[in-house]
Amino acid sequence: MMKKDIMICGVGGQGTVLASKIIAASAMDEGSAVHSAETIGMAQRGGPVTSHVRIGDDAYSPLIPIGGADLLIAFEPSEAVRNLRYLKKDGFVIVNSVPMKPTTLGAGEGYDGKAEIEYLTSKCRCLIVDSDELCAPFGSSKFFNIAVLGAAAGTGELGIGADTIRTIIVKIVPERFHEKNLAAFAAGYKIGENR
Amino acid sequence: MSKKYVMGNGAIALGALSAGVDLVAGYPGTPSSEIIETVAKYPHEGTYVEWSVNEKAAMEVASAAAYCGARAMVTMKQVGLNVASDPLMSLAYVGVKGGMVVVSADDPGPISSQTEQDTRRFAEFARIPVFDPSSPEEAFEMVQDAFEYSEKYKTPVILRPTTRVDHAYASIDAPDSFKAKEYEGFVKDSKKWVIFPRLSYMNHATIEKRNIEIGEDFSSYRFNTVSGSSEKAVIATGVSYAYSAEFLKDYPDVRLIKVGTPYPLPESFLLKALDGVSEILCFEELSPFIEESLLKLIGKHRLNIEVRGKLTGDVPPNGENDADSARRIISRFLGLDVSEKTADLSDAPKPPMRPPVLCAGCPHRASFYAVKRAMKGRKAYFCGDIGCYTLGNAMPLDMVDTCLCMGAGITMAQGFNHMDSDAVAISFTGDSTFFASGITGVVNAVYNAADMIVCVLDNSTTAMTGHQPHPGTGRNMMATPVEKVSIEKILTAVGVKKVVTVDPLDLDAAISAVKDCAEIKGVKAIIFKSTCVAITKPTGKMTVDSDKCVGCLRCIKEIGCPALSVCGGKAVIDENLCTGCGLCSKLCAIGAIGGVE
Lengths: 195, 597
Hints:
Helix content of chain B: 25-40%
Largest sheet of chain B: 6 strands, parallel
Shape of chain A: globular
Number of strands of chain B: 24
Structural class of chain B: alpha/beta
Number of domains of chain B: 4
Mean pLDDT of chain A: 90
Largest sheet of chain A: 6 strands, mixed
Helix content of chain A: 25-40%
CATH architecture of chain A: 3-Layer(aba) Sandwich
Distance between the termini of chain B: 50 Å
CATH topology of the largest domain in chain B: Rossmann fold
Mean pLDDT of chain B: 95
Number of helices of chain A: 7
Oligomer: heterodimer
CATH class of chain A: Alpha Beta
Strand order of the largest sheet of chain B: 4-2-5-6-8-7
Strand content of chain B: 15-25%
Number of helices of chain B: 21
CATH topology of chain A: Pyruvate-ferredoxin Oxidoreductase, domain 3
Number of domains of chain A: 1
Radius of gyration of chain B: 27 Å
CATH class of the largest domain in chain B: Alpha Beta
Structural class of chain A: alpha/beta
Low-confidence stretches of chain A: none
Distance between the termini of chain A: 27 Å
Number of strands of chain A: 6
Shape of chain B: globular
Order of helices and strands of chain A: EHEEEHEHEHHHH
Largest interface: A-B, 59 and 57 residues
């Protein structure tokens, strides 16, 4: 039976919740027990958000312990660093290199995410993805949440079959978005596979 | 039957539906809001569901159902129980016929709340039983048990989940459609249902005697458990039990006691579980409820057990527990050596602060900005309230001087007016908050001849908690179109001198409305009406003409919209975030921002 702790992090509004829902549903579809937890409430308005997805019967609580995550999927470079303590020593990080600048005046001045990406590369096994580049063919960075799942599946670090995830995307996402989302998933998969 | 992957709140809803709940009422509040939404979502026959105007209304509506012998559930967040405490305290004396479960969700952290209050204290205060689930799976079963206990002992019963149980997802095996339980109906008996001093005197004695019986009953309840047999024991409740159990799975000999029913205390169970214990760590969140209960129990039975926890400084007095604090605190208590599991990260770049902000295009930003511009150079107090618009306090808007509790914006602005009549007293209240507890405040201000401006930020939804309908929206939870309750007519009817409705995105008109109102004596009101951007499709996009932009950054410095940032010394607009509200274009002095609104 598979056992995997996956953390997804980003900034409120980036679409992390849908990504975690698809991972959870896919793992269950493959017969695993799943528990997960989301950030809901005030922090959703542009604050840091995390989703904890725990696959396997071993999870007693919904939150991944520090040093417990097998995989960290970060929608933003500084959020990857903020949550790096959750990663296992030999864990894997998939990180979007495009920064989200904080809106609050004076906060994070000069922040461009470059130092964070450099730090992550020096510290752990990781795959760096550029959401602008990856999502350009689909017309909106809103497709990044599906594309990054493709990348995660492509690397093999997710431990869930790409076909299972595709089935779940079709099940969860409204029909008019199927084509673009499946294309975004395929584009991400290619990047993950060719790592 | 089928497996459903639901939030803890969904599990509570499914549990109540499985118990044949006849009526569910509540008021939205994080982390409790999804319970009612889930009840409404699944096919159910004969169950009445409503978003009430506030928690007190919900509690009273549900009480009537329970008097009829029907099963009733009320849902709210912990501070909502403060609002509903008036009916609850009396109801505890009167009792119920049908099962009544009060779900009050606590929020250790606090993550989305004003207080770190502990509903277990409320249960003890009201002398009624409380269930404390440690997982969504357990919440699903406990809510069904709670109905049984409520009917067995004819008392309202509290289910107290916390945020990490409410918002954790798990698979629940539940039916696919539900049918409400049949009930007898109300049987008149004024000696039973009309609260009088004599009845309260009689029932008080009965309740105290009954609570000893419930404690005994709880002593064999399946969610009060003990594992391991060490002399040093850990006792935990709620989600703190889940964290403890996960850490202690590698140490199965360590005695771990779980209390699923903190009040009335299952004394016999605990006395047995504590047999042979010399020292015990209480791992719980919010108040030291179990810790103090144990100290009483140990004193009463003259046991020689050292109790550690919040009172001894072993567990922090505030904030939430998690897997990591369980590992640190329990290993220190047991004298275990646990090595660090992560690489050294002390050299990591410091991530930027990201305080929550109003969404790009949020009409509240425009409302605050209009009032700010109109009051420039004047002494004014800005009293905020509970909702998304509390975020109007963030720089650069800085338009919320106070925020206390639901509805307090209006009444506090009135108080400031009586203390300092030279200043303009202004309150900001959302539409849902206005209905929940704003109206009485306006009446109070009119009655007491205050001089103030009531601003209603009407975005046609209860936005912060996930866009629930309210009396002004024309929709309710039974999905039937209903008459819209008019905020404007209410304000006029209670005697407000001048009531203006204005679109906050029409900046000039909004500024004039505020200026006009400030010139008139008495209570005035401005309804800033514009629908929440999260429930409408964006109408357009604005762009900065970089050839024209001189880089003064006035747009960024004055309104702090998340879609605006600086690139190469000039303002740029993130087209993925912009909704085309056009506020930034109206304050650009050189007309460098244009586009489609």
